[in-house]
Structures are given as C-alpha cells and as structure tokens.
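Work Package 3 (structural annotation) set out to generate three-dimensional models for the target panel prioritized at the project kickoff. During this period the team completed the workflow that converts sequence records into discrete structure tokens, so that structures can be stored uniformly alongside our sequence database. As a representative example, we reproduce one entry of 535 residues exactly as it appears in the project archive.
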Amino acid sequence: MHNLAATGGVTGPGRIGRVAIGDLLKRAARRFPDRIALTDGGRQVTFTELERDANRFANHLVQRGLKPGEKISTICNNSVEFVKALFGIHRAGLVWVPINTMLGPADMDYILGHAEVRFAIIDDALHAQADRRAALEARGMEMIAIDLTGNAGNAGKTGLQEFNGLLEGQSDIEPDVEINDRDLAMIIYTSGTTSRPKGAMHCHLAVVMAVLSNCIEMRLSRDDGITGQFPLFHCAGHVLLLSYLSVGGRMALMRGFDPVACMEAIVRDKLTVFVGLSLMYQAILDHPRRRDYDLSGLRCCIYTMAPMGKPLLERAIADLCPNFVLSSGQTEMYPATTMSRPEVQLDRYGNYWGESLIVNETAIMDDNGNLLPRGEIGELVHRGPNVMMGYYKDSKSTEEARKFGWHHTGDLALIDGNGEVLFLDRKKDMIKSGGENVASVKIEETLLAHPAVQNAAVVGLPHPQWGEAVSAFVKLKPGAVADEAGIEAHCRKHLGGFQVPKLVRILEEMPMTATGKLRKVELRQQYSGHFVERA
C-alpha cells in the first residue's frame, strides 16, 4: 500500500498472504486431522482436538472483551491445556507474556507490571501458593485456572473459572481477527542474570520464520516426535513445539525432567528426537534402569545451553544415538540461530556452536562495527527476520543491541576455518588478569572435566596485583569426594599458569536463575573483597 506505483497500482495480498503463528496449527490440523499431536503420559491428543479447543478458547477471549494487542500472561507448567490456551491466545491476536513458573512472586509481579498485564491463565497448583496468589490479587488480575490437581473451578478451592469449562458452548470456528505479520505476538522476558529482566518483543513473522528454518535444518517430518521436558514458557520449548506440530510431528509433554519418564516416553510414544542439557544425558546414561528401555528409535539428540564434555559426548554417541548436535539461540533471536553438524562431533571438542542457520546471518564484529575475518575474536552478531522487534519500553537497550545494523549478542566468539562459531565467553565474563585475557568458559570446561565436579562458575575478582584474579566456584556431584587443593591441581595439569584459578571454593549450592543459568553476579558481589581484604 505504501508504493503502489511500483506495482502498477496493484495492492498486496493482505490477509490472503498473512503470516500468523496460529496458522501453523490450522494447516497441520487440515493435513493430519487424526494424527497424535501431543501426549502427556497415557493421554493422547489429536490435531483435530487441539485445533478445535484452540478456536473455542480464542472465541472465549474475544467474547470476554479482550482486544488484539492486549497483553495476556500464562503462569503455567507444561500441559495439554497450556498448549490449547497458547494457540487460543495467538488466534485471538493477543500479546503473550509468559511467566517463568520458577520465578518468585516479586519477579513475577515486576514482569506483570512492566508489561501492563491484567489477565492471566494459571495452574491451580501455582495459584494455591499463598505468596504468589497474594501478589496476583493485589494487582487485581483477572485469572482463569488450569485444573491439574482438581482444585480449580467455581466449586473448587480457587474460586476461579476453570479452563475446560469455559470451552463448553464455544464455536469451533476460528474468530475473525485481523493479524498482520509484523504485529507484536509476544514479549518474553530474559532471565536477568545481571540485572532486571528485559522484555524481548517478537512479531508473528519472526517466530514463523524461525519455525520454518528449524523444520528444514532439523529435517523434520510427520514421523518425528520429540521429548517435551523443556518448559513451554521459554522460547526454546515454544519454538520446538511449533516446529514439530507444523510438520505433523508430536511432542511428549512433561512437567520437568525425570530420566525414567523420558525413557518411558521415548519408547511408548515412538519418539525420534531427545533434546536436553548435558546433565540430563548424564542422568539417563547413569540410571540403573537404563537397559530396561530400548532407545534405538532415536535418530537425533540435541543438547543446548552448554557444551558437552568429551567423555560424556563419546559415551552418549556410542550408547544413545550417533547423531548429536548442539543448537543455540537467544530470547532476542528466536531460536535456533546456529547448529552444529553431527558428523563432526567427534572431530573437535569445546564450545562449538556450529554454523549459522538459513534464517539468519552470523558474523564477528569488533567494537568499531567492523566485521572480522575467520579466526579473529570479536562479538557474535546476527541479523535476519527472527531478530526481536526490540526491548519493551527500553529504547536505550534496544539501540545498544542493534548498533551498526546487527543484533549484538554480548558473546565473544570467532568463526573458525570450517565456518563454525566457537563461543569463547560472555563479553562481561572475559577476565583481564595480569595483562592476559582469560576466557572463563575455558576454565569452566576444565573444571567440569574433573570427575567429581557437577557444576562450575568462573569469575574475575578484584585483585591488587593482577587487576582481576581468576576465581572458581564448583558444586560436587552427589556422593563425590574432592577438596579445593585437588581441584586446583587438576587445573594446573590442564591449563596455562595465568589461567589457573587463584581461588577455588566448593559450594553446596550454586546461585541460579529460575531458568537454570548461573548467576555469576551474586558470586562477584559476595566474594568481591576476598583478595583485597587479604592484601
């Protein structure tokens, strides 16, 4: 409509050519009406049922008076009803603001207030938490409960309307809501490892383009099924759900990770793909009932968020599946952005994130905006249709994140001679000690190779002589025995002198965000005076 002269006065296709998240399910349901879309233990849900109830809930939201562009939150763990509600939200043209259920009431309240949310869908078990319920009631939230424990409904203990009851009598026909590809579809808040979480805004086009890229790069088909232990309130869980359903595949929903439940689902639901963290693979391989389950149906295993140590990766490839890939992305760049190739997994080890996917470009940039050649270290940057629209109500951070026409990840990396991204560290986690740059991730990899170490975090602490001192904090595996001197000796065996930690502390628990990421900021704050006080 803005340049009719270029088309000889012919307007664009309008709604005929629209791109909308909800259409992914609609098209799959027409192609595969009777195929299983979701499982939840012994429960099975077809594409037809999912499509029908998504439309019913969308119609309820419209009748309730919610208008396109209004914010609506989900405070839910994985369930069939959560998925139905999610597609209903997309169909009604509302803006989805997922709440991480592991957040405390204060952080939850901050997101609801910052995003100006007045309406939410919540699991009855979460509503039953007194401090969470008080925070929601103080904000005057309108709420619908998903009945997972039998306490929801007007006659139940919550006094809330129950999700399934609201679907009764609603039309199965999708409501007539105008949706444009650049309309805001969701605001997903970052984990806040160093500051208050920021709301990354994504439009329908960004998510759909990421989904289509995943389908191609992962070579998905209607015969594929994936484990669904990753929470759907994260961008990774959400985009995996959309990717598999869009091709007629299926997801086995789980509320958290349990090695036996995962193995049972792989066998029972004939799943072909397992996606998990390194610790999840370790738990399955070490489980005493591992040999009770035939997992040979797996054709691909995906690990994410962190590299897998060489011994574990070799063992997993030999025991579980020959095809392992590391996939990465960001809340700000709808995932995935990079993915490694399975055929090179045993050719190199370390934090290799793989190649850029077809949906986006990936490059390395210096501080002046110059793109660097292969082999040189700089900041990892991306651009493509899956980049966020910006941070909600934060123009300063948005401008900073898109300097020089690229999205800035805050990650230090290089692209090697094979075109693979090698992650080195977060820019803020690069330690400058005695004139040397020390990548904390390299030290962490060495610590994790110690047989007694389960988790590790390395930070730079103020030091009167070195500027910053490499400092390591570790958590031991259950039942493991080790001391700080032995861990330091292990580091000396495998690292250069300037890389060896000047402080090693064994902690009972590591400070973590609700998304399972290490909160290094707390370690820096707690131990900031360690070397200064000693001096």
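The longest strand covers residues 453-463.
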